[in-house]
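Let's study a protein:

===
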Amino acid sequence: MKPETSRISSKGQITIPKRVRDALRVTDGDAVVFEVREEEAIMRKLPKLDVRWLQAVGAGLSEWEDELDDEL
């Protein structure tokens, strides 16, 4: 893909060009992360969280609670 250009607004916002959004499959509400490496920034799409799975895992963690945990 050839380089794409965007301008920074007075509020520090940018528009991600459509070709970049399409290539990364980024849509409204998706989260992205920026990593700065020397003089460049890398943007990646974050995977969506499976909230039901996280809740199920969290519910199972309470069985590990023990008074000894506070002492360690």
